[in-house]
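From the pipeline queue, job 12 of 40. The input is one protein chain; the requested action is below.

Action: predict structure.
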Amino acid sequence: MQKARINPSEIVSKEICIPGSKSFTNRALLISGLAEGKSTLLNPLFSEDTTHMINALKELGIKIETDENKNLIVYGGGGNFTDPRRNLFVGNAGTAMRFLTAILTLCPFKSVITGDIRMQERPIRILVKALRDLGAKIETMKKNGFPPVKMKGNILPGGEINVSGKISSQYISALLMVAPYAQKDVTINIEDELVSKPYVDMTIQIMKDFGVSVENISYKTFKIKSGQRYKNTEYKIEGDTSSASYFYALSAIHNVEISIKNINTETTQADIRFLDVLERMKDKKNPGTLKPLGEIDLNDMPDSSMTVAVMCCFAKGKSKLINLSNLKLKETNRIHALVTELTKIGVDCNELKDGIEINGDPEKLHGDALIETYNDHRIAMCMSLFATKLPNIQILNPDCTNKTYPHFFEDLQSLGIKIEKKKIPNIYLTGMRGSGKSSVGKIIANKINHKFIDTDEEIEKQERTSIPEIVKKKNWFYFRKKEKYVVRSLARQNKTVIGTGGGVILDKENVNVLKKNGKIIFLNCTLGTLEKRLKNDMNKRPSLTSHKELKDELKELWEKRKEKYFSSADLVIDSTDDLSLNEIAQQIILKI
Protein backbone atom coordinates (compact mmCIF):
# COMPACT_ATOMS: atom_id res chain seq x y z
CA MET A 1 0.00 0.00 0.00
CA GLN A 2 1.05 3.59 -0.63
CA LYS A 3 0.57 6.81 1.27
CA ALA A 4 0.52 10.31 -0.18
CA ARG A 5 1.99 13.33 1.57
CA ILE A 6 0.53 16.57 0.24
CA ASN A 7 2.44 19.73 1.10
CA PRO A 8 0.71 23.08 1.59
CA SER A 9 1.16 24.86 -1.71
CA GLU A 10 0.06 27.87 -3.70
CA ILE A 11 -2.16 27.30 -6.70
CA VAL A 12 0.01 28.07 -9.73
CA SER A 13 -1.93 26.89 -12.77
CA LYS A 14 -5.57 27.96 -12.89
CA GLU A 15 -7.13 25.58 -15.43
CA ILE A 16 -8.21 21.94 -15.18
CA CYS A 17 -9.97 19.40 -17.40
CA ILE A 18 -11.77 16.75 -15.38
CA PRO A 19 -12.67 13.22 -16.50
CA GLY A 20 -16.01 12.10 -17.85
CA SER A 21 -18.89 11.29 -15.54
CA LYS A 22 -19.00 7.78 -14.06
CA SER A 23 -22.78 8.01 -13.78
CA PHE A 24 -23.16 8.91 -17.47
CA THR A 25 -20.52 6.42 -18.61
CA ASN A 26 -22.01 3.37 -16.90
CA ARG A 27 -25.55 4.23 -17.95
CA ALA A 28 -24.46 4.83 -21.54
CA LEU A 29 -22.45 1.59 -21.57
CA LEU A 30 -25.43 -0.43 -20.41
CA ILE A 31 -27.87 1.17 -22.81
CA SER A 32 -25.41 0.86 -25.72
CA GLY A 33 -25.10 -2.84 -24.88
CA LEU A 34 -28.89 -3.17 -25.10
CA ALA A 35 -29.12 -1.21 -28.37
CA GLU A 36 -28.74 -2.84 -31.78
CA GLY A 37 -25.50 -2.04 -33.59
CA LYS A 38 -22.53 0.27 -33.12
CA SER A 39 -22.57 3.15 -30.63
CA THR A 40 -19.65 5.50 -29.94
CA LEU A 41 -19.20 6.97 -26.48
CA LEU A 42 -17.08 10.14 -26.56
CA ASN A 43 -15.10 11.30 -23.51
CA PRO A 44 -15.91 8.22 -21.38
CA LEU A 45 -14.46 7.71 -17.93
CA PHE A 46 -11.86 4.96 -17.61
CA SER A 47 -11.81 3.91 -13.96
CA GLU A 48 -12.30 0.85 -11.77
CA ASP A 49 -16.09 1.23 -11.75
CA THR A 50 -16.44 1.63 -15.49
CA THR A 51 -13.92 -1.16 -16.12
CA HIS A 52 -16.09 -3.51 -14.07
CA MET A 53 -19.09 -2.56 -16.21
CA ILE A 54 -17.13 -3.02 -19.45
CA ASN A 55 -15.75 -6.40 -18.40
CA ALA A 56 -19.18 -7.66 -17.32
CA LEU A 57 -20.76 -6.63 -20.63
CA LYS A 58 -17.94 -8.34 -22.51
CA GLU A 59 -18.57 -11.50 -20.48
CA LEU A 60 -22.19 -11.27 -21.66
CA GLY A 61 -21.09 -11.22 -25.30
CA ILE A 62 -21.09 -7.46 -25.98
CA LYS A 63 -18.11 -6.40 -28.08
CA ILE A 64 -16.47 -3.22 -26.75
CA GLU A 65 -13.37 -1.54 -28.19
CA THR A 66 -11.35 1.63 -27.54
CA ASP A 67 -10.38 3.73 -30.55
CA GLU A 68 -7.27 5.87 -31.05
CA ASN A 69 -9.02 8.87 -29.45
CA LYS A 70 -9.88 6.87 -26.33
CA ASN A 71 -13.55 6.70 -27.21
CA LEU A 72 -15.52 3.54 -26.48
CA ILE A 73 -17.06 1.63 -29.38
CA VAL A 74 -19.92 -0.60 -28.23
CA TYR A 75 -21.55 -3.17 -30.50
CA GLY A 76 -24.94 -3.72 -28.90
CA GLY A 77 -26.77 -7.02 -29.06
CA GLY A 78 -30.34 -5.69 -29.28
CA GLY A 79 -31.23 -7.13 -25.88
CA ASN A 80 -29.56 -10.49 -26.55
CA PHE A 81 -26.70 -11.75 -24.39
CA THR A 82 -24.55 -14.88 -24.22
CA ASP A 83 -24.11 -17.07 -21.16
CA PRO A 84 -20.83 -16.14 -19.42
CA ARG A 85 -20.80 -19.56 -17.72
CA ARG A 86 -19.23 -18.01 -14.62
CA ASN A 87 -20.15 -15.46 -11.98
CA LEU A 88 -19.98 -11.79 -12.95
CA PHE A 89 -17.75 -9.83 -10.53
CA VAL A 90 -18.15 -6.05 -10.22
CA GLY A 91 -15.92 -5.21 -7.24
CA ASN A 92 -17.47 -2.37 -5.25
CA ALA A 93 -19.13 -0.67 -8.22
CA GLY A 94 -22.66 0.13 -7.06
CA THR A 95 -23.96 1.26 -10.45
CA ALA A 96 -22.61 -1.86 -12.16
CA MET A 97 -24.12 -4.13 -9.48
CA ARG A 98 -27.59 -2.59 -9.54
CA PHE A 99 -27.87 -1.93 -13.29
CA LEU A 100 -26.53 -5.32 -14.38
CA THR A 101 -28.78 -7.13 -11.90
CA ALA A 102 -31.78 -5.66 -13.73
CA ILE A 103 -30.42 -6.43 -17.20
CA LEU A 104 -29.66 -10.05 -16.32
CA THR A 105 -33.41 -10.63 -15.85
CA LEU A 106 -33.67 -10.42 -19.66
CA CYS A 107 -31.37 -13.41 -20.09
CA PRO A 108 -32.79 -16.91 -20.69
CA PHE A 109 -29.82 -18.48 -18.90
CA LYS A 110 -29.01 -18.76 -15.18
CA SER A 111 -26.45 -16.29 -13.87
CA VAL A 112 -24.91 -14.92 -10.68
CA ILE A 113 -23.56 -11.42 -10.06
CA THR A 114 -21.41 -10.58 -7.06
CA GLY A 115 -18.84 -8.09 -5.77
CA ASP A 116 -16.15 -7.58 -3.17
CA ILE A 117 -16.66 -7.80 0.59
CA ARG A 118 -18.00 -4.24 0.93
CA MET A 119 -20.35 -4.72 -2.03
CA GLN A 120 -21.73 -7.80 -0.31
CA GLU A 121 -22.60 -5.55 2.65
CA ARG A 122 -24.53 -3.05 0.53
CA PRO A 123 -28.27 -3.75 0.29
CA ILE A 124 -30.02 -4.82 -2.88
CA ARG A 125 -33.18 -6.42 -1.46
CA ILE A 126 -35.48 -3.62 -2.67
CA LEU A 127 -34.34 -3.98 -6.28
CA VAL A 128 -34.56 -7.78 -6.17
CA LYS A 129 -38.11 -7.62 -4.74
CA ALA A 130 -39.16 -5.11 -7.42
CA LEU A 131 -37.82 -7.34 -10.21
CA ARG A 132 -39.56 -10.36 -8.70
CA ASP A 133 -42.79 -8.35 -8.57
CA LEU A 134 -42.29 -7.78 -12.30
CA GLY A 135 -42.10 -11.54 -12.77
CA ALA A 136 -38.34 -12.14 -12.74
CA LYS A 137 -37.02 -15.36 -11.24
CA ILE A 138 -34.35 -13.82 -9.06
CA GLU A 139 -33.12 -14.03 -5.48
CA THR A 140 -30.29 -12.90 -3.23
CA MET A 141 -28.04 -15.74 -2.16
CA LYS A 142 -27.88 -14.34 1.38
CA LYS A 143 -30.94 -14.16 3.61
CA ASN A 144 -30.14 -10.57 4.60
CA GLY A 145 -30.84 -9.26 1.10
CA PHE A 146 -27.25 -8.45 0.13
CA PRO A 147 -25.33 -9.68 -2.96
CA PRO A 148 -24.52 -12.11 -4.55
CA VAL A 149 -27.70 -12.17 -6.65
CA LYS A 150 -28.84 -15.23 -8.61
CA MET A 151 -30.96 -15.09 -11.78
CA LYS A 152 -32.81 -18.28 -12.66
CA GLY A 153 -33.20 -17.59 -16.39
CA ASN A 154 -36.41 -16.08 -17.72
CA ILE A 155 -37.36 -13.04 -19.80
CA LEU A 156 -38.76 -10.24 -17.61
CA PRO A 157 -42.58 -10.31 -17.87
CA GLY A 158 -43.31 -6.71 -16.75
CA GLY A 159 -46.40 -5.17 -15.14
CA GLU A 160 -47.10 -2.70 -12.31
CA ILE A 161 -45.12 -2.55 -9.06
CA ASN A 162 -44.75 -0.50 -5.91
CA VAL A 163 -41.19 0.19 -4.78
CA SER A 164 -39.43 2.23 -2.11
CA GLY A 165 -37.34 5.11 -3.38
CA LYS A 166 -35.84 6.23 -0.08
CA ILE A 167 -32.74 3.98 -0.04
CA SER A 168 -31.15 4.45 -3.47
CA SER A 169 -32.18 6.07 -6.74
CA GLN A 170 -29.99 3.46 -8.49
CA TYR A 171 -32.74 0.88 -7.94
CA ILE A 172 -35.20 3.08 -9.84
CA SER A 173 -32.67 3.81 -12.59
CA ALA A 174 -32.02 0.08 -13.01
CA LEU A 175 -35.75 -0.64 -13.34
CA LEU A 176 -36.24 2.20 -15.80
CA MET A 177 -33.41 1.12 -18.12
CA VAL A 178 -34.56 -2.53 -18.32
CA ALA A 179 -38.29 -1.76 -18.57
CA PRO A 180 -38.56 -1.23 -22.37
CA TYR A 181 -37.36 -4.81 -22.91
CA ALA A 182 -39.96 -6.38 -20.60
CA GLN A 183 -42.74 -8.39 -22.26
CA LYS A 184 -45.44 -6.00 -20.99
CA ASP A 185 -45.62 -2.29 -20.19
CA VAL A 186 -44.02 -1.37 -16.87
CA THR A 187 -45.46 1.02 -14.27
CA ILE A 188 -43.29 1.91 -11.27
CA ASN A 189 -45.09 3.49 -8.30
CA ILE A 190 -42.86 5.10 -5.64
CA GLU A 191 -44.22 4.20 -2.21
CA ASP A 192 -42.45 6.96 -0.30
CA GLU A 193 -40.03 9.77 -1.14
CA LEU A 194 -37.55 9.30 -3.98
CA VAL A 195 -33.99 10.24 -2.99
CA SER A 196 -31.44 11.77 -5.36
CA LYS A 197 -34.03 12.71 -8.01
CA PRO A 198 -31.45 14.29 -10.37
CA TYR A 199 -29.88 10.86 -10.92
CA VAL A 200 -33.27 9.57 -12.10
CA ASP A 201 -33.55 12.63 -14.36
CA MET A 202 -30.14 11.70 -15.78
CA THR A 203 -31.29 8.14 -16.49
CA ILE A 204 -34.46 9.31 -18.22
CA GLN A 205 -32.49 11.83 -20.32
CA ILE A 206 -29.97 9.21 -21.47
CA MET A 207 -32.79 6.81 -22.33
CA LYS A 208 -34.39 9.58 -24.39
CA ASP A 209 -31.08 10.30 -26.15
CA PHE A 210 -30.97 6.63 -27.16
CA GLY A 211 -34.58 6.68 -28.39
CA VAL A 212 -36.71 5.47 -25.45
CA SER A 213 -39.30 7.61 -23.64
CA VAL A 214 -40.42 7.50 -20.01
CA GLU A 215 -43.52 9.15 -18.58
CA ASN A 216 -42.59 10.73 -15.24
CA ILE A 217 -45.61 11.70 -13.13
CA SER A 218 -44.26 13.93 -10.33
CA TYR A 219 -41.60 11.36 -9.36
CA LYS A 220 -44.41 9.24 -7.92
CA THR A 221 -45.17 7.11 -10.96
CA PHE A 222 -43.05 6.17 -13.96
CA LYS A 223 -44.58 4.53 -17.05
CA ILE A 224 -42.55 2.81 -19.76
CA LYS A 225 -44.08 1.29 -22.89
CA SER A 226 -42.92 -2.22 -23.77
CA GLY A 227 -41.48 -2.80 -27.23
CA GLN A 228 -39.41 0.37 -27.34
CA ARG A 229 -35.80 -0.25 -28.33
CA TYR A 230 -32.63 1.76 -27.77
CA LYS A 231 -31.08 3.07 -30.99
CA ASN A 232 -27.34 3.01 -31.59
CA THR A 233 -25.85 6.48 -31.60
CA GLU A 234 -22.81 8.66 -31.03
CA TYR A 235 -23.03 9.96 -27.48
CA LYS A 236 -20.81 12.47 -25.66
CA ILE A 237 -20.19 11.88 -21.95
CA GLU A 238 -20.24 15.05 -19.89
CA GLY A 239 -17.46 16.04 -17.51
CA ASP A 240 -18.16 14.75 -14.00
CA THR A 241 -19.62 17.44 -11.71
CA SER A 242 -18.90 15.50 -8.51
CA SER A 243 -15.22 15.35 -9.53
CA ALA A 244 -15.36 19.05 -10.37
CA SER A 245 -16.62 19.85 -6.85
CA TYR A 246 -13.15 19.20 -5.40
CA PHE A 247 -11.63 21.88 -7.62
CA TYR A 248 -14.44 24.36 -7.04
CA ALA A 249 -13.84 23.84 -3.31
CA LEU A 250 -10.07 24.19 -3.78
CA SER A 251 -10.71 27.50 -5.52
CA ALA A 252 -12.80 28.74 -2.58
CA ILE A 253 -10.38 27.52 0.10
CA HIS A 254 -7.37 29.15 -1.59
CA ASN A 255 -9.33 32.19 -2.83
CA VAL A 256 -8.18 31.81 -6.42
CA GLU A 257 -10.01 31.33 -9.69
CA ILE A 258 -9.73 27.83 -11.19
CA SER A 259 -11.24 27.32 -14.62
CA ILE A 260 -12.83 23.91 -15.24
CA LYS A 261 -13.04 23.58 -19.00
CA ASN A 262 -15.45 20.71 -19.60
CA ILE A 263 -18.42 21.24 -17.28
CA ASN A 264 -21.92 21.70 -18.67
CA THR A 265 -23.71 24.03 -16.24
CA GLU A 266 -27.06 23.01 -17.79
CA THR A 267 -26.44 19.36 -16.95
CA THR A 268 -28.90 16.98 -15.31
CA GLN A 269 -26.07 15.83 -13.01
CA ALA A 270 -27.10 16.28 -9.39
CA ASP A 271 -23.82 17.73 -8.23
CA ILE A 272 -24.05 20.87 -10.35
CA ARG A 273 -26.04 22.22 -7.42
CA PHE A 274 -22.69 22.41 -5.63
CA LEU A 275 -22.16 25.74 -7.41
CA ASP A 276 -25.32 27.14 -5.81
CA VAL A 277 -24.19 26.00 -2.37
CA LEU A 278 -20.74 27.52 -2.94
CA GLU A 279 -22.30 30.82 -3.98
CA ARG A 280 -24.40 30.79 -0.81
CA MET A 281 -21.25 30.31 1.28
CA LYS A 282 -19.28 33.21 -0.23
CA ASP A 283 -19.11 36.30 1.94
CA LYS A 284 -19.61 39.18 -0.49
CA LYS A 285 -18.43 41.74 2.07
CA ASN A 286 -15.25 39.77 2.82
CA PRO A 287 -13.93 38.14 -0.37
CA GLY A 288 -12.04 34.95 0.36
CA THR A 289 -14.13 34.24 3.46
CA LEU A 290 -16.72 31.45 3.64
CA LYS A 291 -19.97 31.64 5.62
CA PRO A 292 -21.55 28.67 7.47
CA LEU A 293 -24.65 27.14 5.95
CA GLY A 294 -26.90 26.72 8.95
CA GLU A 295 -29.17 23.76 8.16
CA ILE A 296 -29.23 22.54 4.57
CA ASP A 297 -30.83 19.51 2.90
CA LEU A 298 -28.34 17.87 0.50
CA ASN A 299 -30.35 14.76 -0.35
CA ASP A 300 -30.25 15.44 -4.08
CA MET A 301 -26.45 15.78 -4.20
CA PRO A 302 -25.04 13.06 -1.89
CA ASP A 303 -21.69 12.61 -3.68
CA SER A 304 -20.62 16.24 -3.40
CA SER A 305 -22.20 16.73 0.04
CA MET A 306 -18.87 15.54 1.45
CA THR A 307 -17.07 18.34 -0.42
CA VAL A 308 -19.59 20.77 1.08
CA ALA A 309 -18.60 19.41 4.51
CA VAL A 310 -14.96 20.27 3.77
CA MET A 311 -15.84 23.88 2.94
CA CYS A 312 -17.93 24.15 6.11
CA CYS A 313 -14.80 23.40 8.15
CA PHE A 314 -13.27 26.62 6.73
CA ALA A 315 -16.40 28.66 7.57
CA LYS A 316 -16.63 29.95 11.16
CA GLY A 317 -19.98 28.89 12.59
CA LYS A 318 -22.44 26.01 12.53
CA SER A 319 -23.44 24.04 9.45
CA LYS A 320 -25.85 21.13 9.61
CA LEU A 321 -25.95 18.89 6.52
CA ILE A 322 -29.07 16.71 6.64
CA ASN A 323 -31.13 14.11 4.77
CA LEU A 324 -28.02 12.11 3.89
CA SER A 325 -28.87 8.70 5.37
CA ASN A 326 -27.94 6.98 2.10
CA LEU A 327 -24.28 7.99 2.66
CA LYS A 328 -24.14 5.18 5.23
CA LEU A 329 -24.67 2.64 2.44
CA LYS A 330 -21.92 3.78 0.07
CA GLU A 331 -18.35 2.44 -0.31
CA THR A 332 -18.15 2.88 3.47
CA ASN A 333 -20.38 4.53 6.07
CA ARG A 334 -19.36 7.95 4.84
CA ILE A 335 -20.96 9.91 7.68
CA HIS A 336 -19.07 7.99 10.36
CA ALA A 337 -15.85 7.92 8.34
CA LEU A 338 -15.93 11.64 7.62
CA VAL A 339 -16.54 12.57 11.27
CA THR A 340 -13.71 10.27 12.36
CA GLU A 341 -11.20 11.77 9.94
CA LEU A 342 -12.28 15.40 10.38
CA THR A 343 -11.81 15.04 14.14
CA LYS A 344 -8.16 14.11 13.56
CA ILE A 345 -7.43 17.57 12.13
CA GLY A 346 -9.24 19.55 14.82
CA VAL A 347 -12.75 19.87 13.37
CA ASP A 348 -15.56 20.05 15.94
CA CYS A 349 -18.18 17.84 14.30
CA ASN A 350 -20.90 15.37 15.21
CA GLU A 351 -22.49 12.42 13.48
CA LEU A 352 -26.23 12.87 13.08
CA LYS A 353 -28.83 10.21 12.35
CA ASP A 354 -29.09 11.45 8.77
CA GLY A 355 -26.11 13.73 8.31
CA ILE A 356 -23.29 15.68 9.92
CA GLU A 357 -23.07 18.82 12.08
CA ILE A 358 -19.92 20.95 11.79
CA ASN A 359 -18.93 23.80 14.08
CA GLY A 360 -16.46 25.40 11.74
CA ASP A 361 -13.40 27.28 12.96
CA PRO A 362 -10.48 27.57 10.49
CA GLU A 363 -8.10 28.66 13.27
CA LYS A 364 -8.47 25.33 15.09
CA LEU A 365 -7.54 23.20 12.09
CA HIS A 366 -4.16 21.50 12.29
CA GLY A 367 -2.01 19.04 10.36
CA ASP A 368 0.12 16.10 11.51
CA ALA A 369 -2.59 13.54 10.80
CA LEU A 370 -2.79 10.20 9.06
CA ILE A 371 -6.01 10.05 7.06
CA GLU A 372 -7.57 6.64 6.56
CA THR A 373 -9.60 6.35 3.39
CA TYR A 374 -11.57 3.15 4.10
CA ASN A 375 -10.88 2.29 0.44
CA ASP A 376 -13.35 5.07 -0.41
CA HIS A 377 -12.35 7.37 -3.25
CA ARG A 378 -14.43 10.29 -2.01
CA ILE A 379 -12.90 10.24 1.49
CA ALA A 380 -9.44 10.36 -0.12
CA MET A 381 -10.29 13.26 -2.42
CA CYS A 382 -12.16 15.31 0.20
CA MET A 383 -9.47 15.01 2.86
CA SER A 384 -6.74 15.81 0.33
CA LEU A 385 -8.16 19.34 0.10
CA PHE A 386 -7.19 19.99 3.74
CA ALA A 387 -3.66 18.82 3.03
CA THR A 388 -3.18 21.66 0.51
CA LYS A 389 -3.52 24.09 3.45
CA LEU A 390 -2.35 22.19 6.55
CA PRO A 391 1.12 20.68 7.18
CA ASN A 392 1.99 16.98 7.22
CA ILE A 393 -1.34 15.43 6.33
CA GLN A 394 -0.82 12.02 4.78
CA ILE A 395 -3.44 10.05 2.88
CA LEU A 396 -3.43 6.26 3.22
CA ASN A 397 -4.16 4.24 0.08
CA PRO A 398 -4.42 7.22 -2.29
CA ASP A 399 -4.89 4.86 -5.24
CA CYS A 400 -8.45 4.17 -4.10
CA THR A 401 -9.32 7.21 -6.24
CA ASN A 402 -8.93 4.85 -9.22
CA LYS A 403 -12.56 3.94 -8.61
CA THR A 404 -13.79 7.10 -10.32
CA TYR A 405 -10.85 9.50 -10.81
CA PRO A 406 -7.56 7.69 -11.52
CA HIS A 407 -5.62 10.90 -12.23
CA PHE A 408 -6.89 12.97 -9.30
CA PHE A 409 -3.50 13.47 -7.65
CA GLU A 410 -1.81 14.16 -10.97
CA ASP A 411 -4.43 16.85 -11.66
CA LEU A 412 -3.78 18.37 -8.23
CA GLN A 413 -0.09 18.47 -9.07
CA SER A 414 -0.83 20.21 -12.37
CA LEU A 415 -2.19 23.13 -10.34
CA GLY A 416 1.06 23.43 -8.42
CA ILE A 417 0.21 21.26 -5.42
CA LYS A 418 3.27 19.31 -4.22
CA ILE A 419 2.56 15.62 -3.64
CA GLU A 420 4.86 12.76 -2.72
CA LYS A 421 3.58 9.19 -3.01
CA LYS A 422 5.51 6.58 -1.09
CA LYS A 423 5.18 2.82 -0.82
CA ILE A 424 4.81 1.63 2.77
CA PRO A 425 7.61 -0.86 3.52
CA ASN A 426 7.60 -3.99 5.66
CA ILE A 427 7.49 -2.94 9.32
CA TYR A 428 9.40 -4.79 12.04
CA LEU A 429 8.53 -3.94 15.64
CA THR A 430 11.17 -4.43 18.34
CA GLY A 431 11.09 -3.78 22.06
CA MET A 432 10.83 -5.35 25.46
CA ARG A 433 8.14 -7.88 26.25
CA GLY A 434 5.00 -5.89 27.11
CA SER A 435 5.88 -2.91 24.92
CA GLY A 436 2.88 -3.56 22.66
CA LYS A 437 4.50 -5.10 19.60
CA SER A 438 1.69 -7.55 18.87
CA SER A 439 -1.20 -5.20 19.69
CA VAL A 440 0.21 -2.26 17.77
CA GLY A 441 1.40 -4.50 14.92
CA LYS A 442 -2.06 -5.92 14.33
CA ILE A 443 -3.55 -2.42 14.14
CA ILE A 444 -0.89 -1.25 11.69
CA ALA A 445 -1.32 -4.35 9.52
CA ASN A 446 -5.07 -3.79 9.37
CA LYS A 447 -4.69 -0.13 8.40
CA ILE A 448 -2.20 -0.75 5.59
CA ASN A 449 -3.56 -4.10 4.41
CA HIS A 450 -0.42 -6.04 5.36
CA LYS A 451 -0.16 -9.42 7.06
CA PHE A 452 0.80 -9.47 10.76
CA ILE A 453 3.20 -12.16 12.02
CA ASP A 454 4.54 -12.65 15.55
CA THR A 455 7.95 -14.39 15.54
CA ASP A 456 7.34 -16.11 18.87
CA GLU A 457 3.98 -17.44 17.67
CA GLU A 458 5.60 -18.62 14.43
CA ILE A 459 8.28 -20.50 16.42
CA GLU A 460 5.62 -22.17 18.59
CA LYS A 461 3.65 -23.08 15.46
CA GLN A 462 6.65 -24.70 13.80
CA GLU A 463 7.81 -26.49 16.97
CA ARG A 464 4.24 -27.43 17.92
CA THR A 465 4.81 -26.45 21.54
CA SER A 466 5.17 -23.37 23.73
CA ILE A 467 8.36 -21.36 24.16
CA PRO A 468 8.75 -22.39 27.85
CA GLU A 469 8.59 -26.03 26.74
CA ILE A 470 11.12 -25.43 23.93
CA VAL A 471 13.60 -23.89 26.36
CA LYS A 472 12.92 -26.54 29.02
CA LYS A 473 13.34 -29.54 26.69
CA LYS A 474 16.11 -28.12 24.52
CA ASN A 475 17.72 -24.86 25.71
CA TRP A 476 18.05 -21.16 25.03
CA PHE A 477 20.77 -21.77 22.44
CA TYR A 478 18.36 -23.90 20.40
CA PHE A 479 15.63 -21.28 20.73
CA ARG A 480 17.89 -18.46 19.49
CA LYS A 481 19.01 -20.57 16.55
CA LYS A 482 15.39 -21.31 15.67
CA GLU A 483 14.54 -17.63 16.10
CA LYS A 484 17.24 -16.63 13.62
CA TYR A 485 15.87 -19.10 11.06
CA VAL A 486 12.33 -17.76 11.49
CA VAL A 487 13.43 -14.11 11.26
CA ARG A 488 15.37 -14.79 8.07
CA SER A 489 12.45 -16.62 6.41
CA LEU A 490 9.79 -14.06 7.46
CA ALA A 491 11.90 -11.11 6.34
CA ARG A 492 11.76 -12.41 2.77
CA GLN A 493 7.98 -11.99 2.66
CA ASN A 494 6.38 -8.83 1.27
CA LYS A 495 3.59 -6.73 2.76
CA THR A 496 4.23 -7.82 6.34
CA VAL A 497 4.24 -6.31 9.80
CA ILE A 498 6.31 -8.46 12.14
CA GLY A 499 6.33 -8.35 15.92
CA THR A 500 9.73 -9.66 16.97
CA GLY A 501 10.79 -11.37 20.17
CA GLY A 502 12.48 -9.10 22.70
CA GLY A 503 15.93 -10.58 22.05
CA VAL A 504 15.92 -10.60 18.25
CA ILE A 505 18.05 -7.44 18.05
CA LEU A 506 20.85 -9.08 20.08
CA ASP A 507 21.94 -10.91 16.93
CA LYS A 508 23.57 -8.65 14.34
CA GLU A 509 22.57 -10.96 11.47
CA ASN A 510 18.91 -10.64 12.50
CA VAL A 511 19.19 -6.85 12.44
CA ASN A 512 20.90 -6.83 9.04
CA VAL A 513 18.30 -9.04 7.36
CA LEU A 514 15.44 -6.97 8.78
CA LYS A 515 17.02 -3.67 7.70
CA LYS A 516 17.56 -5.06 4.23
CA ASN A 517 13.87 -5.87 3.78
CA GLY A 518 12.03 -3.16 5.73
CA LYS A 519 12.07 -0.66 8.60
CA ILE A 520 12.79 -1.48 12.25
CA ILE A 521 10.59 0.38 14.73
CA PHE A 522 11.58 0.31 18.41
CA LEU A 523 8.64 0.64 20.83
CA ASN A 524 10.25 2.34 23.81
CA CYS A 525 8.38 1.87 27.07
CA THR A 526 9.17 2.73 30.68
CA LEU A 527 10.05 -0.13 33.01
CA GLY A 528 7.18 0.88 35.31
CA THR A 529 4.70 0.52 32.48
CA LEU A 530 6.16 -2.83 31.46
CA GLU A 531 5.94 -4.11 35.02
CA LYS A 532 2.31 -3.05 35.27
CA ARG A 533 1.42 -4.78 32.00
CA LEU A 534 3.32 -7.99 32.77
CA LYS A 535 2.49 -8.49 36.46
CA ASN A 536 0.27 -11.49 35.69
CA ASP A 537 2.51 -12.77 32.91
CA MET A 538 5.58 -13.91 34.87
CA ASN A 539 5.01 -17.63 34.31
CA LYS A 540 4.10 -17.45 30.62
CA ARG A 541 7.68 -16.99 29.46
CA PRO A 542 10.86 -18.65 30.72
CA SER A 543 13.06 -16.45 32.89
CA LEU A 544 16.06 -14.87 31.23
CA THR A 545 17.81 -13.98 34.49
CA SER A 546 18.21 -15.41 37.99
CA HIS A 547 15.92 -12.78 39.50
CA LYS A 548 12.69 -13.88 41.12
CA GLU A 549 11.08 -10.44 40.97
CA LEU A 550 9.73 -9.16 37.63
CA LYS A 551 10.96 -5.65 38.39
CA ASP A 552 14.54 -6.82 38.81
CA GLU A 553 14.46 -9.01 35.69
CA LEU A 554 13.15 -6.17 33.55
CA LYS A 555 15.83 -3.82 34.86
CA GLU A 556 18.66 -6.25 34.07
CA LEU A 557 17.32 -7.07 30.60
CA TRP A 558 16.91 -3.39 29.80
CA GLU A 559 20.50 -2.60 30.76
CA LYS A 560 21.75 -5.42 28.52
CA ARG A 561 19.56 -4.55 25.54
CA LYS A 562 18.87 -0.82 25.47
CA GLU A 563 21.89 0.12 23.37
CA LYS A 564 20.95 -2.54 20.79
CA TYR A 565 17.33 -1.36 20.66
CA PHE A 566 18.29 2.24 19.93
CA SER A 567 21.19 1.56 17.55
CA SER A 568 19.25 -0.93 15.41
CA ALA A 569 16.07 1.17 15.09
CA ASP A 570 15.12 3.20 12.04
CA LEU A 571 12.47 4.87 14.19
CA VAL A 572 11.88 5.10 17.96
CA ILE A 573 8.28 5.47 19.17
CA ASP A 574 7.11 5.97 22.76
CA SER A 575 4.61 3.23 23.65
CA THR A 576 3.72 4.16 27.24
CA ASP A 577 0.14 4.41 28.48
CA ASP A 578 -0.03 8.11 27.55
CA LEU A 579 -0.97 7.11 24.01
CA SER A 580 -3.65 4.72 22.76
CA LEU A 581 -2.60 1.75 20.65
CA ASN A 582 -4.31 3.37 17.67
CA GLU A 583 -2.39 6.62 18.18
CA ILE A 584 0.90 4.72 18.37
CA ALA A 585 0.06 2.86 15.15
CA GLN A 586 -0.81 6.12 13.36
CA GLN A 587 2.43 7.75 14.52
CA ILE A 588 4.44 4.90 13.06
CA ILE A 589 2.70 5.02 9.68
CA LEU A 590 3.07 8.80 9.57
CA LYS A 591 6.79 8.73 10.28
CA ILE A 592 8.11 5.80 8.26
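Job complete. The domain at 426-591 is CATH 3.40.50.300 (Rossmann fold).
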